[in-house]
Amino acid sequence: MTEKCPAAELRPRHHHAVSPPLPWKTRFFISVLSAVTDVSRRSDGTVNRRLLSFLEPRSPASSQPVAGVRTADITVDSSRNLWFRLFVPAAAAAAGRIPLIVFFHGGGFAFLSPDGRAYDVVCRRICRKVNAVIASVNYRLSPEHRCPAPYEDGEDVLRFLDGGGLARSDPAAAGLVDLSSCFLAGDSAGGNIAHHVARRWAAGGEWKTLRLGGLVAIQPFFGGEERTEAEIRLKGAPLVSTRRTDWLWRAFLPEGADRDHEVVNVFGPRAAALEERYPAAMVVVGGFDPLQDWQRRYYEGLRARGKEARLVEYPDAIHAFYVFPELKESGNLIAKIADFVEEHRNKEKD
């Protein structure tokens, strides 16, 4: 199933451009984020975390509702700083049990976090608009922690939830959540992580109460040794230029691996068979995203393997468009996520 969403406004296509016309606020934020990540990437393949700590704005958790949502930071494993930020809609008490969305932020596996201002704001929006509890995971970052560290962290968060960890940490939130209506979601690298965590859930044997109803992959970070048409045409695009993505893959993959590794080129020459229980997926693609060809191949690969998949396309969208509330496509996508969750909740119950 494919949905072509309308552009933010009618305009002629300029195929030589690497991004569509954007509001000044959006352009400024993208320029700052690109500059921050570029200056923190060292030539030896490491990241200057000390510098980033001064440059990345943070938002503390708020026990009192802000914009209709309260938040709390829940520790899963302090030894590896594995925790998640919980987002609970203030209006949910009268709605009965509601779905849980386990969310993985983007940042090329190397940058950003759940308490960064951008992801705190966008997860509040999703929480409020979808009427779901969100668990935004603070997974380990590369290059300090390479593949498969974030996949292990994601699975361990699911095990924590399945084992009653939320009830011990936040009983009020646990009383709202329906663990049999759990969804995975993520953007960019987070979409890649959501895919691999879904595979681990599907292959993970018995689960007590947690069931995956679906997966939302927002412009997931996949790739391969091949340079696709979109990567060549949009090689200088904001945030995910080929120069940046090549560096990020080198920082994340095991030493000596290339971009046809199975975690990158998920349906490529080294791909393993997809698990039978793999959940329904919604795949989001932007027309100004250099990664779009790989994202469509992911959707097509799911369909070819008999999985339920929905492709949602935004022709004028840049990579990470949905974190900018001033863009019309952002609100449209969150509404589509709400529809997908409502359609698929409880479908995976035994």
TrEMBL record:
InterPro entries: AB_hydrolase_3 (IPR013094), AB_hydrolase_fold (IPR029058), Carboxylest/Gibb_receptor (IPR050466)
Residue ranges of every copy of the Alpha/beta hydrolase fold-3 domain listed in the record: 101-322
Pfam families per record: Abhydrolase_3
Molecular function (Gene Ontology), one example: hydrolase activity
Gene3D superfamilies: alpha/beta hydrolase
Protein name: Probable carboxylesterase 18
Lineage of the species this protein comes from: Eukaryota, Viridiplantae, Streptophyta, Embryophyta, Tracheophyta
Gene label: LOC103704792
